[in-house]
Hints:
Elements: E1 6-12, H1 15-24, E2 28-30, E3 38-42, E4 47-53, H2 54-57, E5 75-79, H3 83-95, E6 99-100, E7 105-106, E8 110-116, E9 122-128, H4 130-134
Parallel strand pairs: 1-4, 5-9
Antiparallel strand pairs: 2-3, 3-4, 6-8, 7-8, 8-9
Amino acid sequence: MYQQMIFVNLPVNDLDASKKFFTELGYTINPQFSDDKAASVVISDTIVAMLLTKPFYATFTQKEIADATKTSEVLVALSAESRQKVDELVDRALASGATPSGRTQDHGFMYGRAFDDLDGHTWEVIWMDPAAVEG
């Protein structure tokens, strides 16, 4: 059965630093789709973050590239299997050079935290009680 995938393309200032950051979060780099201009970060079977140097990113758009440290261009939200996993991932990100983004959201049935990566892209990590989703 076909599973649709998502490829999030993000411009980065320092490709090597960004690769190191995401591998420290526990993700892998797919060398088949990585070179000196891009890195393919495998987040799951259906989610890949493509980290692109800014000059390479510019070849895909005619728009100005946003400075994510000053302008919000995207919020990437990842699910987590538990509240503990939310904390583990965000804490690992912060220890690897990310900065906190926003406040912890705790609504009982839903829990989330966010961080800005090395280039200012905001990543939200959320857990939702499966019982709340079902009904």
